[in-house]
Amino acid sequence: MMELVEMTFQMPPQLQRLMRNLLEAHFSHPDLLPPVQALFERSYGIASECADPGRALLISLAMDGMQLIDLLRLHQFTSEQRNAVRKTVEELIAQLP
After folding, report:
1. Dist CA 26 CA 36 (whole Å)
2. Which of 35, 40, 59, 63 has the fewest C-beta atoms under 10 angstroms from its C-beta?
3. What's this model's pTM, rounded to 2 decimal places?
4. CB-based contacts of 20: which residues, under 8 Å, 6+ apart?
5. Are the beta carbons of 58 and 13 closer than 8 angstroms?
6. Cβ atoms 32, 25 nearer than 8 A
7. What 3-state DSSP class applies to 21?
8. What region, left, alpha or beta, does residue 73 occupy, with left being phi > 0 and alpha being psi -120 to 50 degrees?
């Protein structure tokens, strides 16, 4: 789970470009989606197998949502907002059984 948090808050620029390209490909080349869908299936499958699947899935969804908002530049989170979210997510992860 901490890898997901790190990826959300410190995604390298080249990975950001890749993710934007994947989003673009979703619309122009839907035939390329199955490998990406498999990646998400695996990720959410792992979260579902945790002792507290609801919390693990919520953390995964929150991080994916934040990444998407960042990638699409829908909102510019302040440093304070990002730090508050990260702190809360890390606390939630620490509470996972």
Report:
1. 10
2. 35
3. 0.74
4. 71
5. no
6. yes
7. helix
8. left
Confidence of residue 15 (pLDDT cuts 50, 70, 90): confident
Q: Is the pLDDT of residue 4 over 80?
A: no
Q: One-letter amino acid identity for 39?
A: L
Q: How far is CA 44 from the centre of its chain?
A: 11
Q: Is residue 26 scored above 90 in pLDDT?
A: no
Query: Quick one: pLDDT band at residue 56, thresholds 50, 70, 90?
Result: very high
| Side chain identity, residue 2 | M
pLDDT of residue 31 exceeding 80: yes
> For residue 79, what are the contacts with CB-CB under 8 A and spacing of at least 6?
none
3-state secondary structure of 11: coil
In whole angstroms, give the CA distance from residue 25 to residue 44: 22
Number of residues assigned to the chain: 97
CA–CA separation, 26 and 84 (whole Å): 32
Q: Extract the tokens encoding 81.
A: 């907002």
